[in-house]
Design brief:
A hairpin with a 2-residue loop joins β8 and β9. The protein is α+β, with helices and mostly antiparallel strands. The protein has two domains: about 40 residues, no CATH class; about 130 residues, no CATH class. The protein contains five helices and eleven strands, in the order βββααααββββββαββ. The model has no long low-confidence stretch (mean pLDDT about 80). Strands 4, 5, 6, 7, 8 and 9 form a six-stranded antiparallel sheet that branches. Strands 1-2-3 form a three-stranded antiparallel sheet, with no helix packed on it.
Length: about 180
């Protein structure tokens, strides 16, 4: 237990597997006082400590930024950091499974801008780079070419840019455009 109000259980997941089919070790935490339930994996500790902090704090952490560098070049990462440098705190969704941040470049009025969504269980991410009215996504992909992180969270973020997900072309597009 973390404290007298928090209970933690550890064990293997019965249904969550990594890319090799191995079960993912999971922790379940319940805070009686706050009545909150949290799921976490071996990767969660890297990210959970940054909830409520500025995205630059996470992006400055060598261990935490490794996830982004698996699919981004150093130049893309520097652009991403600049484009999210004016931001509010990192927040979580789905009982701590996802950590999310949105922001914009200083003095940009919102263009360029960026966001990230990290799935702490599967150790995957989606980064959005918004510039000149277009959104470029850098993301972990399934074998069929679909994003591993999408759904309601991505839809809510795209809404902030007046965009929607184009399922046919598997990319964001402006609302009202075919």
């Amino acid at each position: 237990t973390k404290n007298k109000n928090t209970f933690m259980l550890s064990g293997g997941s019965a249904y969550l597997t990594n890319e090799y089919g191995d079960l993912i070790d999971m922790r379940l935490s319940y805070d009686q006082q706050a009545k909150e339930l949290w799921f976490s994996s071996q990767h969660s500790d890297i990210f959970q400590k940054y909830i409520g902090q500025h995205p630059q704090d996470l992006l400055s952490d060598k261990d935490a930024r490794e996830i982004f560098l698996t699919l981004m070049s150093p130049e893309e990462f520097k652009t991403f950091r600049h484009n999210i440098s004016t931001a509010s705190g990192i927040y979580s969704r789905n009982h701590g499974r996802y950590i999310i941040a949105t922001g914009m470049a200083p003095h940009s009025g919102g263009d360029p801008a960026a966001f990230f969504i990290v799935d702490t269980i599967y150790y995957q991410f989606t980064v959005g780079l918004y510039h000149d009215g277009y959104m470029r996504l850098i993301s972990s992909m399934r074998e069929n070419g679909e994003l591993t992180i999408g759904g309601d969270i991505l839809d809510e973020i795209l809404e902030n840019y007046n965009m929607v997900w184009d399922f046919e072309n598997q990319k964001p597009r402006k609302k009202g455009q075919p």
